């Protein structure tokens, strides 16, 4: 009797729990559709995009899919009602409609509420204009190249001395050191090593596109906020040191180099009324600019090294001024900005559907850049595709316009020229003086939060033999 009772309850449990979960799944979606139906009836709006809202609160965060008519569909991600856009036309529509879509980072305070990444209007125009001038003018790029070239050369020599490296780790170190020198005037030290760890903790949460914004002990968000506070402390101390030096009029040869780095120039930036940025604005912009220029460039360079190791024919062409196409193909495959976040500022009609006011809009750029409709054999590393895409036909122009690796509209990445320059420099130094081989050419790839060789791409690395 006891055994039969246990079997009955076990059968009930195994049968009822899935049915209950299925009911909750459908009821949650029905609730959102019913709420929107009332709004639609009152305002004569088109329907919601296809899709599903998933389970309450969690939504579809744990099982993100890209589907739906017209390349946009409804979902529930990051704790918010969401429309996901995955086709070029939809992405460009959102990026170019700045009066209809505002910024919506899942956790905006991590990049800084007063940073260029979050502010709007005149403040954004002023800071972005300064950054574009600092990162894009030929003279500025030449000066930055001269500043970071010795560090790159020294790093490659040290890799050759080691014989084997983990590419993702070593490239990340080189890029972070170059960012510290250009932006903060800091040379490699135990402090910059700790800062590197804290920025990685910050980036882990920002890149966790499927993560929930839960600030509980042990969560990624909780750790990221601790890392942000530590970084704030370092930058605040450096800021105070510079302000005291300016007030006292004291300089010395070791500190003179600080006066032309990004931090000092942000401290000196004024608006039309002569007002300078507050300490908070300087700190928020420093943290966000390091975030924007660190992981994305490191990832792109790692993938360049990875693909070149598998493509000796491409590597041979680099020595024949082939580098620009390699850079473009690398950043396409690396998807250095896989998603962008916006919010609908009003009810918006697009593609026969409604994007409701207040809904989160995710631009899924990664899906677009590996879509065979726009890039034949999209997962192949093929720099020659850029010969065709740079042609003069209307189709070539359309294909090229689908390349949104640095975003688009008035918030196109302000540092895209600096990123291209750093990737080009690394490829140039590598191809002229070194050779490398993947230790595991069949290494798997982890795709969450962004594509990365599962073990970081370990490889043998040595100086190019004189006979090569």
Protein described:
Residues 242-261 are annotated as: Disordered. Heme binds at residue 413. It holds the Pfam family p450. By secondary structure, this protein is an alpha+beta fold. It contains 16 helices and twelve strands. Residues 65-70 have low confidence and may be disordered.
Q: Which key terms come to mind for this protein?
A:
alpha+beta, globular, 54% helix, Cytochrome p450, 11% strand, 16 helices, three-stranded antiparallel beta sheet, five-stranded mixed beta sheet, 468 residues
Spatial order of the strands forming the largest sheet: 1-2-8-5-3
Alpha plus pi helix count? 16
Low-confidence stretches: 65-70
Largest sheet: 5 strands, mixed
Helix content: 40-55%
Shape: globular
> How many domains would you count in the coordinates?
1
Q: Give the terminus-to-terminus CA distance.
A: 82 Å
Top-tier CATH class: Mainly Alpha
- Strand tally: 12
CATH superfamily placement? Cytochrome P450
**Per DSSP, what share of the residues sits in E-state strands of 2 or more residues?**
5-15%
CATH architecture term:
Orthogonal Bundle
Radius of gyration: 25 Å
Q: Would you tell me the overall average pLDDT?
A: 84
Short description, anyone?
With 468 residues, the protein is α+β, with helices and mostly antiparallel strands. The chain has one domain: Cytochrome P450 (Cytochrome p450, Orthogonal Bundle).
Give the helices and strands, then pairings.
Elements: H1 2-43, E1 72-77, E2 80-85, H2 88-96, E3 101-103, H3 121-136, H4 138-162, E4 164-166, H5 167-184, H6 190-206, H7 220-248, H8 253-256, H9 262-268, H10 279-310, H11 312-318, H12 323-334, E5 339-344, E6 348-350, E7 353-355, E8 360-364, H13 365-369, H14 385-389, H15 394-401, H16 416-433, E9 434-438, E10 445-446, E11 452-453, E12 458-463
Parallel strand pairs: 2-8
Antiparallel strand pairs: 1-2, 3-5, 4-12, 5-8, 6-7, 9-12, 10-11
Binding site for heme: 413
Keywords: Heme, Iron, Metal-binding, Monooxygenase, Oxidoreductase
InterPro entries: Cyt_P450, Cyt_P450_CS, Cyt_P450_E_grp-IV, Cyt_P450_sf
């Amino acid at each position: 009797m006891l055994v039969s009772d246990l079997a009955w309850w076990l059968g009930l449990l195994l049968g009822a729990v899935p049915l209950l979960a299925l009911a909750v799944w459908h009821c949650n979606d029905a609730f959102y559709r019913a709420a929107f139906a009332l709004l639609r009836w009152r305002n004569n709006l088109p329907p919601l995009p296809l899709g599903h809202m998933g389970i309450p609160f969690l939504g579809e965060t744990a099982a993100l899919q890209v589907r739906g008519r017209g390349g946009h569909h409804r979902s529930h991600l990051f704790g918010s009602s969401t429309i996901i856009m995955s086709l070029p036309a939809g992405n460009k529509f959102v990026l170019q409609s700045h009066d209809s879509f505002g910024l919506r980072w899942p956790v905006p305070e991590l990049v800084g509420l007063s940073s260029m990444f979050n502010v709007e209007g005149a403040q954004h125009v002023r800071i972005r204009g300064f950054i574009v001038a600092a990162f894009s003018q030929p003279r500025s790029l030449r000066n930055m190249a001269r500043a970071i070239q010795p560090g790159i050369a020294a790093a490659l020599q040290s890799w050759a001395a080691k014989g084997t490296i983990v590419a993702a780790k070593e490239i990340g170190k080189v890029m972070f050191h170059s960012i510290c020198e250009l932006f903060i005037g800091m040379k490699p030290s135990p402090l910059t090593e700790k800062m590197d760890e804290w920025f990685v903790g910050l980036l882990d949460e920002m890149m966790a596109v499927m993560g929930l914004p839960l600030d509980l002990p042990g969560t990624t968000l909780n750790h990221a906020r601790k890392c942000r506070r530590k970084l704030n402390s370092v930058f605040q101390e450096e800021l105070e040191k510079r302000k005291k030096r300016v007030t006292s009029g004291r300089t010395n040869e070791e500190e003179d180099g600080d006066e032309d780095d990004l931090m000092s120039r942000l401290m000196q930036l004024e608006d039309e009324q002569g007002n300078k940025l507050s300490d908070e604005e300087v700190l928020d912009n420093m943290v966000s600019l390091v975030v924007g220029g660190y992981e994305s460039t490191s990832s792109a360079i790692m993938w360049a090294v990875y693909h070149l190791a598998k493509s000796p024919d491409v590597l041979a062409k680099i020595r024949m001024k082939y580098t620009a196409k390699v850079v473009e193909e690398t950043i396409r495959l690396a998807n250095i900005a896989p998603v962008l976040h916006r919010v609908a500022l009003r009810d918006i009609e697009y593609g026969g559907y409604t994007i409701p006011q207040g809904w989160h809009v995710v631009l899924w750029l990664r899906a677009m850049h590996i879509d065979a409709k726009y890039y034949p054999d999209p997962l192949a590393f093929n720099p020659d595709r850029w010969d065709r895409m740079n042609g003069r036909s209307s189709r070539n122009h359309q294909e090229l316009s689908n390349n949104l690796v640095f975003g688009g509209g008035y918030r196109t990445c302000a540092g895209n020229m600096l990123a291209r320059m750093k990737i080009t420099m690394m490829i140039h130094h590598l191809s002229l003086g070194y050779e490398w081989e993947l230790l595991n050419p069949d290494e798997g790839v982890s795709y969450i939060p962004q594509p990365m060789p599962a073990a970081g791409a370990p490889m043998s690395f040595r100086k190019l033999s004189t006979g090569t």
